[in-house]
Amino acid sequence: MEFKKLFVIGIISLFCLQIFGQDNKYIPPKSRILFVFDGSQSMLSKWETGLKITVARNLLIEMIDSLSYLENVEMALRVYGHQHPVPPQRCDDTKLEVPFGKNNAAQIKQNLKNINPKGTTPIAHSLELAAHDFPECDMCRNIIILITDGIESCDGDPCAVSRALQKEGIILKPFVIGIGLDPQFRETFNCVGNYYDAANEESFQEVLGVVISQALNSTTAQVNLLDSYGQPTETNVNMTFYDRFSGKMKHNYMHTINHRGVPDTVILDPLSTYDLVVSTIPPVKVDSIKLVPGKHIIIAADAPQGNLIVKKPSTNAYNDLKILVKQHLKKDIINIQEIDKSQKYIVGKYDLEILTLPRIKIEEVEIKQSHTTKIEIPAPGLVTFLLGATGYTSLYAYNSNTLEWIYNLDENLTQQSLHLQPGNYKVVYRAKNAKETILTFNKSFVVKSGSSERIKLN
Is the dihedral of CA 157, 163, 166, 170 positive or negative? Predict the structure, then answer.
């Protein structure tokens, strides 16, 4: 037993040391393990060197002894089928015997020793109530280890309950250890969680060690953000890992190239299947990432990028100018870029709408790998409108043989100035006190870069 303790603690400690290092400040989340233990009548059956209940609880007690040495682990115990004999069948026979808390290993061991199997097997109901066994905690991993020698006997649906708990993010995918079960029941439990078959006493001891190791160990991953040449050179962008089943955010890491010139290692919880979103513009996604506990993996994401900068002319008129950016032939705006500031985009073609007056639209701007695409816009002219009286004034730009509306002047002002791009314009004006349509005033004018114009409207 002492060797078993040292072995489990040594494996877990060594793995954590390899991941975090002695001086690493990363603080892993607390792991909370709820043992859901079968106390039904069938556990009185003969198995190997004794009764199933005797063998199972002795080995579990040995494991709980080992876990009690780990500071970042808390345990609890729920038992079913141990309070009411059958017949009659009592499908509410399940109880949280020992809640989560520090230094409760002795209490859990004592409760295991006092279990007297006598009842039925309400697995689904036990899992359903287990949702309330985990107190609220922001930095906790909630793990259920179900140890059973039989299948559901109360018409419940353990698979549906397990899926619901995972979907709500209450628990990670449970572990199920089947004690001496017929192999045909594997499929019955595969949908509940990660199923392990303990055909005999020796394999139960091994399986229990494997399950604990997988429940507690983190996994390292290297995310390669590939450029156009398939090299992992892209970096300095946030990566968000979502639990694929629940949709909840699990990890956020800023991608980094380390001192050795390779993408740095990140730490992931191996009990989840992940969807990865890399916050490039537009985002890059990698779906259904599955991990193997304790095994380092490499995740590749195509993220070739280049830069775009829109340069303003030598004037203060456009200091706060914004640029709407869309992927070519797509409707959604993916970014609002500031003038004179370089921004990275995924390699491809983009449509720009620069918020000058009138707006400048540029289609199929090509972004190339590690290249900065520069767009320069013309200097505007300053146009001052002088109105004889307040009124209704609309400004249009000539677009071939048609007029394109670009701006309405403030109807309560008689003098306004606008910076306009070079081009041909028409202004249409009617004074508020002019109550006849025929009194509408039209005037065409031309704007040149850097010019200053005064347009009088009487």
Answer: negative
Q: How far apart are CA 179 and CA 40, in angstroms?
A: 13
Whether residues 180 and 38 share a domain: the answer is: yes
Residues 32 and 126 in one domain: yes
> What pTM was estimated for this model as a whole?
0.82
Residue whose token pair is 């250890």 = 177
Per the structure block, which two tokens stand in for 458? 């009487």
Domain boundary among 361, 376, 391: 376
What are the φ and ψ backbone dihedral angles of 441, each rounded to 5 degrees? -110, 130
What CATH number has the domain bearing residue 326?
2.60.40.1120
Q: Find out whether the peptide bond into 29 is cis, omega within 30 degrees of 0.
A: no
Q: Write out the two tokens for 77.
A: 């115990």
- From the number of C-beta atoms within 10 Å of its C-beta (0-12, 13-18, 19+), residue 348 rates as middle
* Domain shared by 188 and 163, yes or no: yes
Residue count of the chain, please give it: 458
Helices (H) and strands (E) in the chain, counts: 7, 29
pLDDT single digits (tens) 285-316: 999 999 988 889 999 999 999 999 999 998 88
Domain end, chosen from 273, 302, 331, is at 302
Total tally of structural domains belonging to the chain = 4
Q: What confidence category does residue 364 fall into, taking pLDDT thresholds of 50, 70 and 90?
A: very high
Torsion sign (Cα): 323, 328, 332, 335 = negative
Clarify whether residues 438 and 363 are in a common domain: no
Helix (H, G, I), strand (E, B) or coil at 282: coil
Show the DSSP H helices in 298-404 as ranges: none
For residue 454, give the nearest of 357, 390, 379, 387 by alpha carbon.
387
Given the DSSP bridges, would you call strands 140-148 and 175-179 parallel, antiparallel or unpaired? Answer: parallel
Domain hosting residue 268, numbered range: 219-302
Give the contacts of 318 (CB within 8 A, at least 6 positions apart).
Answer: 312, 339, 356, 377, 380, 419
170-213 pLDDT, tens digit per residue, is 998 999 999 988 777 778 898 999 999 998 888 998 999 999 98
